[in-house]
Design a protein that fits this description.
single chain; alpha+beta; six-stranded mixed β-sheet; five-stranded mixed β-sheet; 16 helices; about 20% strand
Amino acid sequence: MSVRQHKLANGFRIVTEHMPGLKSASIGIWVNAGGRHERPEQNGIAHFLEHMAFKGTKTRSALQIAEVLEDVGGYLNAYTSREMTAYYARVLEDDVPLALDVISDILLNPTFDPREIEIERGVILQEIGQTLDTPDDIIFDWLQEVSYPDQALGRSILGPAERIKAFGRQDLSGFVDEFYGPDQMILSAAGAVDHDTLVAEAEQLFGHLQARSYAAPEKGRFQGGEMRRQKDLEQAHFTLAFESPGYRDEAIYTAQIYSMVLGGGMSSRLFQEAREKRGLCYSIFAQAGAFADTGMMTIYSGTSGGDVAGLARLCVDELRRSVDDMTEVEVARARTQLKAGMLMGLESPASRCERLARMVSIWDRVPGLQETIDKIEAVHATDVAQFAVDLCGSGTASMALYGPVEQAPDLADLTRRLVA
């Protein structure tokens, strides 16, 4: 398998990986524009724009966009994150040019028909309502909000309903003009693809675009805080977070291994203590999420209202214990889990396609798998223990609670317990 890169004169980047033996390919365009690029009055516009990409262009109706790739057995989709928006397809080998033509069409030639805007406005408001009715979704938005208050990084990707109700055609086209320049786009493809052919097609489709300057997003500042929403639910949903490294920080590998030891699987400390030994919950996990300039180490679990206090204190006790008794056996297991998860995930062209785009976005190159594996292998128990010391000693944390949570301790109580 070989990774190749090319950059057009206007800054548009192409990265491909040919995977021998495959008869299909994943292809997409990742745009360095997401929720954290929005100004307060724009909150939700990046996601609204992603929805509108499928609602008609100068050459295709919304129905034609839906049918054109499905007619050849492929599919088309998109997503918005806090730092990127992706438009991607999976097709058979012969239909790669068609997929690129459709994706370029929806990016370069949207009509933003007012009738379609109204229809999609209703769809997004339904999506917001569905999220509000899903406790283990909305609680992470609330945790993000209290961790990064009054910042773009802390606002929800969907945006508030009142903003969605007010957006119009000019708001959508304005965001495109502001952030959808060629130097913000990455064409990524993996599977049955030919690099030189895609470069030539990209030149024809995107080579005429003019590079543009854009405002860099506000730097994330993890500040911590607490949000507690009492509601008559079956479970109390509990999240706790601390600042951790961004994905450009070499310490990200230590953070990921620490999260695996703490709550990365059935053998993890939190799972064993909270579920297997004490029966306090059905599921519990820890994860190290990362952005360009900051990150969050997050613990989540759902439990009964009567057990939420015990569960919260147990999580803090496990954090504190990790400072003193981190073992090389646990860290070795976590390293193996991390490597296996990465390698297994790269067996599909879709996963490879997304990885290529993300690596180019972060480093403007694609590190070899062995380079990444070597960095994972270089993390040992002493590194993870020191990470635990720094995490627990930071003194700044965030917590979000939802459901029957009146018995839960407050954040100040938990942070005092952490450093006791």
